[in-house]
Amino acid sequence: MASIVYAMETLQVFRENSVVTVTINQPKRKNAINPAMWDGLTEIFREIASNTSDRVVVVTGAGDDFCSGADLSGRGARSGDSAGASAQNQVHHLAAMRRVNDACIALQRMPQPTIAKVRGVAVGAGCNLALGCDLVVASQTARFSEIFARRGLSLDFGGSWLLPRRIGMHRAKELALLAEIIGASDALEMGLVNRVLPDGEVDSFVDNWARKLALGPPIALAQTKRLLNNSLNVTLEEALDDEAAAQTINFATSDTAEAMRAFIEKREPKFIGR
């Protein structure tokens, strides 16, 4: 059964067969995200995280582009501002960045597997929104850029944390400091994306991955995602302790018992998420 469950025009949420598709819907602005939309994404991601019926999340953009980053219109400081006005601007910008950060944290905290489906531009915060997903599937039309330096800015939406983990420190610095736009094939070679496909094949490929993940064991997948996300922050001994704790949780679930029965009975398991 399919349903649209979020009313904000610039953000659309569509649910079907335990797969949630979150679409940034501002194609005339290349899906740039304004402050209200950052708040909306935070709300959406948090709601999904607490909904046990949602098994997989696909994040994408309407039209020909994924996301051109934050909508910066009206954000520049005016020359000749007084010291007081400058301080006010700083407070305003810090508050605005907290809204961006909240959305980033909400995305990372979702226990469900997340897939970014990228066509066209994914730049700035839009690039890091894609990289913040667990899997990234790109069309051959996709173009990625940590464009911040061209705007006189430094990385945000978790770019300083995400990039070194995905592609290593030297390549992270290459993308961040040079702020070049790279095509889909270069993004694949660097390890920024998992797959690059002809535009006409992207939807069916993502649908297939989403269906596979939706049929998987939600608790075990969430544990695996958490272990991998934490892996660079812990020692081997700590990772082993975390794995042991996760497996203890898994063995207490009905899903693990079902998987064992299905293996013996030579059939596909039916996971219910508990």
Describe the structure in your own words.
This protein is of the alpha/beta class and 274 residues long. The chain folds into 2 domains: 2-214, Alpha-Beta Complex (2-enoyl-CoA Hydratase, Chain A, domain 1), CATH 3.90.226.10; 218-264. Helices cover 48% and strands 15% of the residues. It has a 7-stranded mixed beta sheet with strand order 1-2-3-4-5-7-10, sandwiched between helices. Strand 3 (19-24), helix 1 (35-49) and strand 4 (56-61) form a beta-alpha-beta unit. Helix 8 (218-230) packs antiparallel against helix 9 (236-251). The longest helix is centred in the middle third of the chain and has 27 residues, at 83-109. The protein is globular. 36% of the residues are buried.
Question: Brief description of this entry?
Answer:
The protein has 274 residues and is of the alpha/beta class. Helices cover 48% and strands 15% of the residues. The protein is built from 10 helices and 10 strands.
